[in-house]
């Protein structure tokens, strides 16, 4: 689990140091920096996957640096895991409007380590210097051994696209089932894998889907009869067992909920699950069910989400909520404290307090 993250010079985030818990729900008005915080994990994942050059050239260093290179020289970060290991890096702009790794270091919390640079109880060891791409992924010993699995899971899940040609609605490659993709493009293949290899979890996912889509009976998943390398998200409706429906027949909200339930109920959970506005298009009942899934999943994975849903916020405790506000041209992050809200919470939910402007991160 990430226990602490420090970010400097990234988009609207001039400088922040934030302690993270098992559940982290970011709230705030449009444009305050919630999505920038979420997208920072995308940047880190591209560094780890050795795609920094392509990513930074597409995005442009000027758009990634806080108010551009005239105001910000570098993007820096320190990410601590379980208060034991850390990944530290600095990115600097190139003449071609990309970014280069000025340095990346691993660090561990120990009283020993003669070959390391002393930093309090933390010891840092260089991984690379002035490198176009990270060398962390190819480093198997030391700190890298412990942080690789975390950085590999820095994927931002967004199941927003439910158009007719979206990955969620189109057939999937049958064997594309190692992990659920960020856009849900292999949802049918991944569910088929669960059905064949983890049937208990598959049945639980079906049961939860029924609770928010009472017309849904069960999935009918099998390779396409005319192309066995492909699979469709086929299902039957209650009282109509002989009629097969597919993903095009699901409403947008139902299809998104299926992807979210699959992500949060899979047997081998990622170290960290990051979701941008998971409530989009969901019925209030489905949002309440989603909150329950998030809480249960947090026992195995660290959850980081951004939301605009008052209903979703109302399902959580103050210590789960991080408010985001824009102050003096930068994003400011604060975690709520239960003690300061106890009198209010006897009569209102957190969602109510958000609407009443009692807490920061105002929705208006």
TrEMBL record:
It comes from the Bacteria. Signal peptide: none annotated. CDD domains: ABC_ATPase. Residues 23-313 form the ATPase AAA-type core domain. InterPro entries: ATPase_AAA_core, P-loop_NTPase, RecF-like. It holds the Pfam family AAA_21. This is AAA family ATPase.
